[in-house]
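=== Per-residue structure ===
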Amino acid sequence: RLHLPASGLPAPADLRALVDLRAAARGACPGFDERFFPLLKRCLLADGWLSAAERWVVLRIAYGGGQIDPAERRFLDDLRRSLPDPPPEFLAAYD
């Protein structure tokens, strides 16, 4: 948690490592999630939309642990509300 940037964006390799770590976790410390999900959202929406690669990251997080946990559900809900024109692929996965 101490190594997650409070502002700005991490290097792409660092973000991939964090996504891999969170996707593989069976559970996560609430403090980690409090920093990780806003950081991930900033990275995903830096250009204002979700690319196919970014949608894959979202799916990897949501389904990495076998089921969607409450923190992941809150993240998905927040991401959905933040997208002015969500891609149909994202909406299908979200639903």
Q: What stands out?
A: The chain has a mean pLDDT of 85. The two ends are 30 Å apart (CA to CA).
